[in-house]
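Allow me, if you will, to draw on your knowledge of protein folds for a short while. The matter concerns a single protein, recorded as an amino acid sequence and a row of backbone structure tokens. Kindly check, if you would, that the fold set down in the tokens agrees with what the sequence suggests. You will find the record immediately after this paragraph.
***
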Amino acid sequence: MAIRTASDYYAQLRALLPPGPAWDKELNPEVDKLLQAAAQELAREDLRAADLLEESFPETVRELIPDWERVMQLPDPCLGDSPKFEDRQLAVRRRLVEVGGQSPAYFVELAISHGYPEARVIEHRAPRFGRSRFGTAHFGTWVAQFMWTLETGPRRRLGRRFGVSYFGEQFGGNPSGALECVLRRSAPAHAVEFIKYGED
């Protein structure tokens, strides 16, 4: 969408005036001032219309985050009491496009989206005739068929740094509660899931 400036609108308004000395800039400067004021207002409205178009898409929403959250039953309780604005934007996008799943790939994607790019799922095996082998370290138990572990890999580097933070933000934080909350909420009811955090 092309955004017109005040000079664009002024030229358009000037071109729409009928011919005659009553509309001449030099003979009647008040008309010219009126056109300039109208052009500035039209340009402002044009800019706000472009903003409204951006606010209608979750990828570019900023001002209407509270309205999107109200419609989508957000903010997510997993994000805590006062989530960061970027996390609120991301939650709106996720709620709109996410379809969920119960495959290991889905839970790996959840971990990646929370800042653990090297995450992987390990599925535990229950002992079965023909599948168990002598010499393996862990045969597991019958309950193991419902158990799996999410290895996050190296800890994500979050937290704020001096000079690029605003007042009230925590320095050097590494919140993992959101990952655990989202993972346990999305896991199948019969599953027993574990999270193994990596080290730096």
Summary: Strands lie at 120-123, 147-153, 192-197. Residues 26 and 106 are 70 Å apart (CA to CA).
